[in-house]
Amino acid sequence: MAVAQEKTSPQASGEQAVEKTWHGIVLQSLKRNDIRIVPYVPDRVLTTLSMKGAVLMQTSGFATLANVLASLALPYQIPLIMFVSERGTLGEFNYGQSLVCRTMRPVLDSLAMEHHTATRLDEFEFIVDRSIKQAITTQAPVAIILSPLLTGGKVFDK
Question: In terms of CB atoms within 10 Å, which of 6, 61, 87, 147 comes out highest?
Fold first, then answer.
């Protein structure tokens, strides 16, 4: 995600004006055109446009990320915060989801990537807050796995 942090300077009229920089112009153009979400591949030049973001996905979405995590997020110290809704367990009907669920934690472990499984609402705020703080301060990705015990999971009707 990208949104610039704008620098302002007071004007005689009391209004705030954005400093004329390339990233300030990009920010104002995005805002003027009501563009609020901008996915991007991190690059040093773009850091002035960067803000903290999070990725929301299902277990099967995680299955496509091993290469991205190993070749981008981990070596370039990107504090990627992932919320992964867990499927493949507790009544799952799709065998493919079950296979991905069984491999997700071992993949995270093999990448030495921090991950926590949230199962209880009374612990959830603590886990999320501390995971985000750790990801930012250590400049390392973290996965917060949302167990069906927490979310209620996907409901499968016959």
Answer: 87
Range of weakest confidence among 63-72, 83-92, 148-157: 148-157
- Beta strand 8-10 with 54-58: parallel, antiparallel or unpaired? unpaired
Tokens representing 136 are 């930012």
Spatial separation of the C-alpha atoms in residues 8 and 6, rounded to whole Å: 6
| Tokens linked to 47 | 């850091």
Structure tokens at 102: 């069984």
Question: In the chain, how many H helices and how many E strands?
Answer: 6, 6
5-44 CB burial, b ≥16 within 10 A, e <16: eeeeeeeeeeeeebeeeebbebbeebeeeeeeeeeeeeee
87 CB neighbour count, 10 Å cutoff: 22
Q: Which residues contact 9 (CB under 8 A, 6 or more apart)?
A: 16, 17, 19
Angle at 139 between CA 147 and CA 31, to 5 degrees: 85
The predicted-structure confidence for 74-106, as pLDDT tens digits, reads as follows 998 988 889 998 888 888 888 888 888 899 999
Per-residue pLDDT at 5: 46
